Amino acid sequence: VTVYRALTHNSIARVRGPPSASLLLGNVTDTLYQESVGDVEFKWLRDYGGAWRLKALLGANILALADPKALQHVLQKSAYDYPKTRQLWVTLYNITGRSILWAPAGEIHARHRKVMMPAFSVPQLRSFLPLFRRSASKLSQLWKDRILAGRPGGATVEVNDWLARTTLDVIGEAAFDFDFGALDDTQNELSQAYHNMFADSQLYPSVWNMIFQALWSLMPEPLLYYIRYLPTREFKRYRSTREIMDKFSAELIKERRRDFVAGDPDKSRKDVMSVLVRANMSENPKTQLSDEEMRSQMSAMTLAGHETTANTLTWMLWELAKYPDVQDQLRAEIAQKRQDIVANGAYDFALDDFEAMPLLQAVVKETLRFHPIASYLWRVAAKDDVIPLEKPIVTETGELISEIPIAAGQVVMPSLCTYNRLAHVWGEDAHEWNPTRFLERDTEKETKVGMYANLISFCTLFLRLRDPKLTFLFLFAAAGVRSCIGWRFSVIEMQAIVVDLVENFRFAIPDDKPEIIRAPTMTMGPMVKGKMQEGFQMPLHVVPV
Ligand code: HEM
Questions:
Q1: Is residue 203 within 6 Å of ligand 1 at its C-beta?
Q2: How far is the C-alpha of 343 from the C-alpha of 337, rounded, in Å?
Q3: Cβ–ligand 1 contact at 458 (below 6 Å)
Q4: Span 261-312, pLDDT tens digits
Q5: Which pick of 137, 154, 470, 526 has the fewest CB atoms within 10 Å?
Q6: 417 marked ligand binding residue
Q7: ipTM of the complex
Q8: Does ligand 1 lie within 6 Å of residue 488's CB atom?
């Protein structure tokens, strides 16, 4: 009924949007088959403003949103009234099981979030800094020994693969106290299962696959849990990864629970799984996560916590290679801070040191703005609603509207990559990578969309986390919202890694200047044009400093 209402509700039809190339496929292929993320979205933003209509498969409408107030409404204020679409939650279920990424909006998601939050508290994350620094330094040493030894002029390094291996090892140790051995090239079932998963399974889905997914909206829900057994390229890949991970997680949870029951001999254990097991066992049995849910969190953590950070770091190094003056200034800032650290008798960078490095902060934020690896999200309205707009849009009939009424069942597509390019939020040069914008910004007057620098890239709600009172509040407020639980983890990890790499190496675009594209997959990875079948990659010329 809701699907039918959404199809027949006519207010959305008045919102302007691109003509649809095909009656059957609508504009969906424009997005999924575009060469580089943004090719079509930035044009639509220019043509229609902060909201536009796309045609989905079988004639349905999709409302795409870049407007700050609209995004705040859909992702924060009424977040549980905009659950994930069936296509998205089924995919997340297929990859991770009954994890927080799958968890249906409302009581189930709030229960998952509550048990998981303690593992992402600020003190807990501070304790991971030595791990991040150790992993970064291991990566630098491997480059020096294996690739750059005897080559003072440097060599071309495929940095994305190395960074994905580094972040996989980091998440393994931080989340499970487990060594994936990815940097050491250990032949490991688990690390192989996650290698290039999205590039292998999601790039340019077939038309039949898209039509099949559109039909999920009409299928009875219980049936959707069995779709994963179909023998398609992507389902086979997801299934084998999940089976390997499930086996591993089951053992790990058993071990951690045994520790807990036996009095937890190693109370200092900080890995996410230990904190999760402790938090879960302290919960009221009614609100505890089941064994299956606990196992699934491990898949979710590995999935959400490694390629995301690796791809963002890759884009950061690419931009630093393109802007050698910014790279030099960053290296000078690092050298200055290193001198202060040595003068103070400290051994290595602390979190406060990173926070006192304005250019480092700006480079991380600007990269998250410019290259949001989750370039758009999928939501569906659970009930009739009116979406407010900060800037009015012009309709098909020439009216100016500042609210869009929608019917239950309406599919909404928060377009994170276009919000991050709004000229009235980020400046007239929003389509340029320019970290200095974060050295000069006054965010007070902006509609608060993102918790971190008002960026939407982590889908976060806005609160000033430096204030301890608000941090406390955040733990509760965030219990009901689907923002990225790992945003701070990722920011600290990226700072720790980029500081080590820029301190030790100079990055440049290789002489053959490969054309890099932002592949339209779930984590917007870099690919070399013409070599897409080789998966994500970013060749950069690397010279030891
Ligand atoms: C640059 C790195 C990252 C980016 C840009 C990012 C972005 C996002 C976004 C946009 C969402 C919302 C997705 C949706 O609701 O449809 C999300 C959710 C999530 N992220 Fe991240 N993420 C990053 C790193 C991480 C890391 C390192 C972890 C874990 C250690 C993590 C764990 C999660 C989890 C568990 C959720 C689901 C939260 C929920 O539904 O309540 N992410 N992330």
A1: no
A2: 10
A3: yes
A4: 776 655 667 788 888 887 788 777 777 888 889 889 988 998 898 889 999 9
A5: 470
A6: no
A7: 0.98
A8: no
